[in-house]
Predict the structure.
Amino acid sequence: MKRATKSLLIAAAAAGALLTAGAASASLSVFQTYTGNLGLSTGGFGTTAQAGDITANVPVGSTVVAAYLYSSTFDFSAAFTPTGTFGGSAVTYTPLGATGCCNLQAGRADVTSIVAAVVNGGPGGAYSFHVTEGESGDDGEALVVVYSNGSLAVSSIGILDGFSTPGGDASSISFGSPLHPGDAGFQAEMRVGDGFSCCSQETTITVNGQVMTDVAGNADDGFVANGALLTIGGDNDPFTVAGPGTPAEDYNTDHERYNLAPFITDGDTSINLHTFNATGDDNIFLEVFQVTGEAVFHGSDGVPEPATWTMMLLGFFGMGSLLRRRRPVAIRA
């Protein structure tokens, strides 16, 4: 990517962060979006040891645009804000709001500077970061890294975060041009982060009116114990096998990473999604999308992604435009 384009992306991301500061506590609202020659890395872990390592996979020659660490928490009496460290540095989490059940909550920390210091100019590949938790009520952590690399095609990345609501949560992606999912290189994927989830507590995800999975969730990145119940669709996870009329039905092979292309009809200009957990007692706190081309993202609150407002703000300065879910585990005291 050209240097000017990189600068614009980073400036827009920073402006978006300012505009969304303090705007958490909305069910799956759009936190950030990015468009350009971009790549995405996600991963996570759950452990009762209150410490572990989390990996970002970034190819050589890439520049980190943004990195966010999420901590999923549970407390049966009151929600709390997580604490801890990342890469040896203390991190401050912004609480994202509690679910209707069980005071499940996640927090988000901006760790861009920490990840960039390690990745930018590095050899490429898998980068490991040590994470510690300050409370036993943390179920685990998830890391989202967005990076730029001139060898990649233009795509849009949307990060939606918050909490699950009892009635389910909707999100959508709209495009200015018709989609052609059969084209070579077409990309439309979704990665979900879910906390306090296990033991056949299942979430249904619908794409464009068609059920994609009835079995999202589980403690794929941890194990069955309070304090380790976390899953996130990660770089090393295969796409969950699903298609129109044949949704995923195997709880153990749904890894919360989804290819949306089979659910898109040639010529569509939008992708509409809905997540619903019938028991309403786990917490989809994160949805991350990467789609071909330029896109506009919307969350359950119906508010456009921060990038829409960011483009307006940058215009004023003459800079141009840029561009849930299963029942908590029954392992309780």
In short: The first helix runs from residue 3 to 20. Residues 238 and 257 are 7 Å apart (CA to CA). Residues 3-316 form one domain. The helical segments are 3-20, 112-119, 306-316.
